């Protein structure tokens, strides 16, 4: 082949290597199929803020006026156990319902006379819950009255004895338990519920006073070595109630475990309790002294002139202040001072006191 003929193909090869091959045609992609999912939030139940009650609103159910509107419970007395049988009476350990809890107590039915018997509701004073047994503080007087034809019944109150625990502000829970005990009396065939008297010692005197301002079924009441009818005096002497476990409260200094304020009380109620405790004017709403015009039962008041010398006692002026309140309210009241006696009468003065008590109940409940 001639040299010129070879040069042409070689040049073509070289030139083709110097110039790239033409690019392939561009490909148009279809639009992306995108599904847009809107953002969603999980619904939340945000509680509405609870309106805080005023002190007056929170404490209202525990005032004298509020307790008159209370929805008291009706339920039977159940005998748990027969504790004692004597020639004069039979003693039973009982329970009954009160505001959704169970309260224990003592029932003593006389064996003399003919049923149904007039009833004396016995309200015990303060006892340490560490040592208290059902019937403590009322058993001696109950025995005396059983021998004279009276059926006696006593509540341990909430937190005492075998009873359940629930709040009690300014003795309100204790008074509720006693009123619910009266409501349960028709379940006892031997009890004449048309003839009910009441007997209260120390703290039980305060409970009796509160019941008298709320319930008119009591026909006669004996108040013995009582706490004051004015809670300003009670708190001034022993302080307000203890918050939390009531047994721990008893062992603490500076609080009065007669009142019961569990930890699960609404905070505004607990705060209101202490607000009222520090305000003598507001205390009038919970103090029987300022509501004696509502009392319908004649009352006898007994005290010892040497009472109140120790912190657990009750000063004699509390009894005279109570008596003056009854007189000012135009009520039927008598007062008896026992010279030299202390918080619990001993020996002949005690029998003299109980003899007067019996004659008083006889006059009204056994006409």
State the main characteristics.
single chain, 367 residues, alpha/beta, Rossmann fold, nine-stranded mixed β-sheet, two-stranded parallel sheet, 32% helix, 20% strand, globular
How would you describe the overall organization of this protein?
The strands form two sheets. The protein has a nine-stranded mixed sheet, with helices on both faces. It has 367 residues and is α/β, with parallel strands linked by helices. It is 32% helix and 20% strand. The chain has twelve helices and eleven strands. It is globular. Mean pLDDT is 89; it is low at 1-44. The protein has a domain at 65-229 and 296-365: Rossmann fold (3-Layer(aba) Sandwich).
Report the CATH topology name of the domain at 65-229 and 296-365: Rossmann fold
Category by helix and strand content = alpha/beta
CATH class wording of the domain at 65-229 and 296-365: Alpha Beta
Helix and strand sequence: HHHEEEEHEHEHEHEHEHHEHEH
Hey, roughly how much beta strand do the residues contain? Answer: 15-25%
| Overall spatial form | globular
CATH superfamily of the domain at 65-229 and 296-365: Alpha/Beta hydrolase fold, catalytic domain
Q: Helical percent range?
A: 25-40%
Most strands sheet = 9 strands, mixed
N-to-C CA distance = 163 Å
Helical stretch tally: 12
Short description:
With 367 residues, the chain is of the alpha/beta class. It has helices at residues 3-18, 55-59, 64-68, 139-146, 172-184, 203-214, 231-238, 246-250, 267-277, 280-283, 316-328, 348-365; strands spanning 78-85, 89-98, 101-110, 117-123, 151-155, 191-201, 218-224, 242-243, 260-261, 299-304, 333-338. α11 links the parallel β10 and β11.
